[in-house]
């Protein structure tokens, strides 16, 4: 057995081997040690190998999905090795024969389909990188969701490779081994970590890709799929070859590869995607992200489509307008929208059920889910049929109408109302569907009544009231009596001839009879035959479903489109969002804009409204480029929120959503860049300032006139004059070279002078009020420039010691007044630093009492002016020892 294990493990060296032994999947050697740590299960040992104990651990087969979920979540890959024959068959070959086993499937992060292992609202993409070297190096990405059949491909470049990968956010990226070790691309794979998975170069052979892909799809030629470059074919074939490797004999119902045209979606670089927290926060949580704030979908498929649209906003105003038309329709048709959403809540995940069935991993409930989904789709189609629909919804309705109604009727006729989880349990075919099955079931059920009758007859015949007829998998049916009553069964030769002894227990004995054995044969045959018929019905139904897979996938996508459109209308209604105008201009005009995430958090946590602000980066009269706003103002004033909210409004508008504003007119943004916040990259030897400069360099080197750039506090991570110089030069470059629309926040107030020489640069500031020594942040953006940052006040709010705050005030005052000639090092003459601050601390209690007594002793009405002056001198010198 261990020899067999070692051979199978050698063929799957990069995976943990789940080796089936009876009711358990066992792991041995290093696999056992890894799994026991990852799963928190006991590590034992079994036998010896080369004189040493063999580590072993195992998980029950019935609970394997739970353990797989944890292992896959940790980035492991698992090879599932099953027993390919009944152990009884192995015994027939001899006592040394081992049950035949083989790997039936490789479970990897990008190829899972089990319902328990997948997040309903998140896609599970497997991606492949194809590279072809020629006169110019070509790169392409192909990605699939094996659980839904989605298949996409796109060309890319080394410069935007990481951004394109993160846009899709695959669970697994497969790469040819030489590419994986290429020094030029190595930084990309370092960022991805365990997501990147090197594979043999043969998987990516573009020269043989066409022929092998034709065989996979069962077509004579790929001409009907469109024309693909060699790099795209390499990526497409790579992902298909990996599916064939991991799924063994099973073939998922993949759609034909569809190309994502270059420039069709808004380019968002990796740091911008992270900074804006589109789908996850910087800490990796879904709560607090834009996706969480706007998701009102009713189905898992709708949630996945919403996330896809959010991460890949469009750049075609016409396509964006069609999506917005759908949202407008459902906003105006509230009763229809509510009825649709109620129907959608009952729709199962059709596309994932289809994939499980096609891969021979589905069960009766997947068939039942498909039946319910097809029924709901028909009801939704009837709901929309007589309405004047916008273009996108007309297309969705046609896809729903094309769903096979006869298949839905057949499934309804064939499947019982209550369905088991596993097909092996039987009982999922409806009565009256198959005559032979009904006959076998009647025989099986009647035989059970006969067994009960035989038990009653034996009780009366023997007089043993405790006699029972029971069943187990070893003995089959048997008669069980207590040890005290066994004499009745063995006391005479006649009794011995009739009651055949089978087993002696500690306090009971078991027997059988010829009549019971014959009845058992009839029952076993009837039950086995009934199950055989049911499994045959299941296979026929699955074949019908897979044959209609293309129409079912299209129908599932149509339901997702309806869900997203209705959900965005619900969002717009509940949050008072407005339809944006998106065109080919260079405008960026927002009135009353709000941050969609912060607004909801303020309302939910504090019950406070969000302060809305305008933003206008549109070209002024005569200008052919957008404006730049130079934003100054205090810490805690809301600068970062204002920057982010305008970027998010652009993303939401171009994904086809209404936006949190009174009015929004946006010329299509083709590239979005954001440099907000501070972070380091110590693993790659980069300080916070270095990361800031790298990200800023990427923006200045790539932004064009259609770009939207969000920059916050450039140059703050170095010396004051260095930082000011860098920020100054960056603004000039954005204005003169990039000529893009931009928001640039800074604490370098000196930069406000740039507006005198840069015509498209405008000064704006976050307003504050000072009242009785306190600073009140108004969170309002107004024209003009700030001359203070109120950093010391923020430090006090943060809880710095009072002595530190007081000393900081003094240092700030002296710097502002020019006492030190603008040089902070002259303040060192006042060391120790907090001497002055101590003098400003409140008087000690005893001194306060003496001061109070001295004041009480004074009577202003009875002293002369000279005495009053002398008293004043004494009070002034109080505490100095006089």
Automatic annotation (TrEMBL):
> Per its UniProt record, what InterPro entries does this chain match?
DNA_mismatch_repair_MutS, DNA_mismatch_repair_MutS-lik_N, DNA_mismatch_repair_MutS/MSH, DNA_mismatch_repair_MutS_C, DNA_mismatch_repair_MutS_clamp, DNA_mismatch_repair_MutS_core, DNA_mismatch_repair_MutS_N, DNA_mismatch_repair_MutS_sf
Sites binding ATP sit at 633-640
The reply to whether Transcription figures as a keyword in the UniProt entry is: no
Top-level taxonomic group: Bacteria
User: What positions does the domain DNA mismatch repair proteins mutS family occupy?
Assistant: 707-723
Query: What keyword terms does UniProt attach to this protein?
Result: ATP-binding, DNA damage, DNA repair, DNA-binding, Nucleotide-binding
Q: Does the keyword Amino-acid biosynthesis apply?
A: no
Report the protein's function: This protein is involved in the repair of mismatches in DNA. It is possible that it carries out the mismatch recognition step. This protein has a weak ATPase activity.
Q: Which HAMAP family match?
A: MutS
Protein family: Belongs to the DNA mismatch repair MutS family.
Task: State the name under which the record lists this protein.
Answer: DNA mismatch repair protein MutS
Which organism is this protein's natural source? Answer: Chelativorans salis
Q: Which gene encodes it?
A: mutS
């Amino acid at each position: 057995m261990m020899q067999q294990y070692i051979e199978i493990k050698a063929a799957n060296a990069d995976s943990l081997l789940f080796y089936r032994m009876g009711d358990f999947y066992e792991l041995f050697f290093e696999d056992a040690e890894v799994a026991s740590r990852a799963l928190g299960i006991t590590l034992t040992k079994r036998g010896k190998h080369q004189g040493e104990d063999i580590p072993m651990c195992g998980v029950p087969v019935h609970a394997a999905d739970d353990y797989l979920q944890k292992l896959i979540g940790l980035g492991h890959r698992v090879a599932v090795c099953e027993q390919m024959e009944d152990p009884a068959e192995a015994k027939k070959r001899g006592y040394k024969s081992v049950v035949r086993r083989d790997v039936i499937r490789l479970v990897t992060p990008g190829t899972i389909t089990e319902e328990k292992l997948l997040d309903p609202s998140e896609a599970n993409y497997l991606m492949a990188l194809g590279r072809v070297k020629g006169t110019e190096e070509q790169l392409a990405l192909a990605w699939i969701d094996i659980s839904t059949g989605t298949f996409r491909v796109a060309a890319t470049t080394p410069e935007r490779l990481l951004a394109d990968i993160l846009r899709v956010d695959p669970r697994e990226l497969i790469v040819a081994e030489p590419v994986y070790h290429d020094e030029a691309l190595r930084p990309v794979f370092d960022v991805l970590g365990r997501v990147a998975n090197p594979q043999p170069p043969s998987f990516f052979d573009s020269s043989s890709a066409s022929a092998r892909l034709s065989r996979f799809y069962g077509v004579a030629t790929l001409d009907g799929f469109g024309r693909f470059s060699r790099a795209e074919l390499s990526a497409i074939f790579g992902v298909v070859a990996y599916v064939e490797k991991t799924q063994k004999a099973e073939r998922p119902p993949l759609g034909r590869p569809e190309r994502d045209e270059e420039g069709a979606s808004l380019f968002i670089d990796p740091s911008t995607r992270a900074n804006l927290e589109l789908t996850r926060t910087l800490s990796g949580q879904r709560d607090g992200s834009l996706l969480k704030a706007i998701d009102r979908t009713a189905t898992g498929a709708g949630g996945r489509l919403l996330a896809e649209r959010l991460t890949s906003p469009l750049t075609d105003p016409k396509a964006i307008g069609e999506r917005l038309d759908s949202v407008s329709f459902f906003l105006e048709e509230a009763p229809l929208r509510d009825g649709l959403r109620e129907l959608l809540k009952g729709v199962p995940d059709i596309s994932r059920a289809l994939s499980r069935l096609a891969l021979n991993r589905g069960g009766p409930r997947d068939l039942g889910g498909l039946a319910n989904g097809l029924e709901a789709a028909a009801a939704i189609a009837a709901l929309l049929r007589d309405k004047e629909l916008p273009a996108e919804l007309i297309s969705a309705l046609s896809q729903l109408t094309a769903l096979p109604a006869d298949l839905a009727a057949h499934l309804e006729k064939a499947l019982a109302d209550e369905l088991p989880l596993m097909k092996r349990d039987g009982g999922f075919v409806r009565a009256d569907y198959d005559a032979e099955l009904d006959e076998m079931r009647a025989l099986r059920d009647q035989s059970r009544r006969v067994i009960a009758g035989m038990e009653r007859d034996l009780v009366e015949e023997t007089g043993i009231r405790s006699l029972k007829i029971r069943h187990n998998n070893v003995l089959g049916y048997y008669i069980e009596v207590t040890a005290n009553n066994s004499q009745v069964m063995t006391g005479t030769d006649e009794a011995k001839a009739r009651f055949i002894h089978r087993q002696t227990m500690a306090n009971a004995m078991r027997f059988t009879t010829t009549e019971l054995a014959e009845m058992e044969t009839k029952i076993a045959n009837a039950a086995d035959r009934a199950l055989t018929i049911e499994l045959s019905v299941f296979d026929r139904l699955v074949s019908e479903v897979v044959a209609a897979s293309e129409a079912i996938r299209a129908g599932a996508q149509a339901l997702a489109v309806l869900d997203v459109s209705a959900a965005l209308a619900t969002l717009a209604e509940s949050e008072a969002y407005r339809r944006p105008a998106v065109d080919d201009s260079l405008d960026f005009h927002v009135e009353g804009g709000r941050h969609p995430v912060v607004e909801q958090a303020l309302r939910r946590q504090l019950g406070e409204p969000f302060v809305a602000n305008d933003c206008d980066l549109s070209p002024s009269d005569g200008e052919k480029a957008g404006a730049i706003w130079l934003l100054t103002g205090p810490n805690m004033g809301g600068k970062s929120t204002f920057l982010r909210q305008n970027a998010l409004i652009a993303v939401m508008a171009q994904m086809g959503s209404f936006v949190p504003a009174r009015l929004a007119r946006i010329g299509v943004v083709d590239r979005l860049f954001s440099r907000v916040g501070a972070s380091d990259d110590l693993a790659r030897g980069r300080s916070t300032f270095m990361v800031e400069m790298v990200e800023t360099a990427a923006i200045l080197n790539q932004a064009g006139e259609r770009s939207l750039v969000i920059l916050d506090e450039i140059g703050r991570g170095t010396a004051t004059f260095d930082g000011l110089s860098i920020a100054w030069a960056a603004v000039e470059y954005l204005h003169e070279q990039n000529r893009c629309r931009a928001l640039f926040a800074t604490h370098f107030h000196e930069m406000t002078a740039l507006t005198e020489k840069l015509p498209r640069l405008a000064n704006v500031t976050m307003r504050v009020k000072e009242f009785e020594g306190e600073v009140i942040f108004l969170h309002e953006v107004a024209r003009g420039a700030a001359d203070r940052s109120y950093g010391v006040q923020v430090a006090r709010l943060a809880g710095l010691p009072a002595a530190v705050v007081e000393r900081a005030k003094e240092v700030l005052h002296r710097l502002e007044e020019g006492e030190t000639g603008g040089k902070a090092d002259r303040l060192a003459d006042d060391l120790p630093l907090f001497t002055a601050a101590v003098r400003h601390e409140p008087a000690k209690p005893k001194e306060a009492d003496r001061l109070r007594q001295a004041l009480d002793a004074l009577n202003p009405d009875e002293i002369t002016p000279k005495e009053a002056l002398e008293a004043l001198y004494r009070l002034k010198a109080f505490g100095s020892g006089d």
